[in-house]
Structures are given as C-alpha cells and as structure tokens.
Amino acid sequence: xxxxxxxxxxxxxxxxxxxxxxxxxxxxxxxxxxxxxxxxxxxxxxxxxxxxxxxxxxxxxxxxxxxxxxxxxxxxxxxxxxxxxxxxxxxxxxxxxxxxxxxxxxxxxxxxxxxxxxxxxxxxxxxxxxxxxxxxxxxxxxxxxxxxxxxxxxx
Length: 155
Hints:
By secondary structure, the chain is of the alpha+beta class. It contains 2 helices and 7 strands, in the order βαββββββα. The chain has helices at residues 16-23, 121-151; strands spanning 4-12, 40-41, 55-63, 66-78, 82-89, 94-104, 107-117. The radius of gyration is 15 Å and the shape is globular. The N and C termini lie far apart (42 Å). The model has no long low-confidence stretch (mean pLDDT 92).
C-alpha cells in the first residue's frame, strides 16, 4: 500500500502569464492529454479559468481502453504561481497534483508534483512497479511535447 511521487520540470519560452492562462483553463486539458486516453470533460461547468472548489469530471481510459469516470477538485489556486487538483473519485486511491509556474530568464519553469496511491493495496503497489509509473511518465512526456508545439522550446 505504497504512496508514490512523480515530479516533472519543463522550461517554456513564454511569459508566466501566458503559460498560466493556458494551464488554468480546463478546456485545454484535452490538448495536452494523449489521444489514446480518450479524455473527455463531462462536467457542465465550462468556466474559462479554474477556481478553488471547482469540480471537474472526465471520462478517461487510463488502462487497456477501459473507460472510467474521474472527478477532481481544484483545492488551491494562487494565480500566476500554482494550483492543486485532488481526485475525489477515480482510478487512484489518492491523487494530489501540484502545478507550479515560476518566472525564469527567457520564460517560465513549470513544475508538477503528483503524489498518488494506487488502489488495491499490495496489488496496486505491484501494478505501480509494472505499469502505472511508466504510464505517468508517458502521459507527461506527451504533455511536454504538446506544450513545446504550442509554446516552442527553450534554448
């Protein structure tokens, strides 16, 4: 019954305000999620930007094309600095995702810290070693490439 962390850092050649406006819009999630995940926002709220207490529901296929409902709540927002989303229902026993943006010379440093616990106790720990961690790496690698296509790459 392990709890794991995954961290990713990406340098983006755009101002914090531009990067923030993009990542703080739930409508852009599908643009940075791999197509094989079948990601669809199903919640009725179509707010342009997230806010504390916002509930977002999705349909997603994290494993073997099996569709599941994922419900997250935006629990903290400090505009142009960070936000946190936490799973309320979905494929993990626990999911806490911190998104940070910081100014740097020539653009923005974006850092994600995901703390998660797979379901099913020791079986979940075993699944994490076999494929969950690898899948997270693949998803974030896709996101990196998608953001590079949108904003370019740092020199």
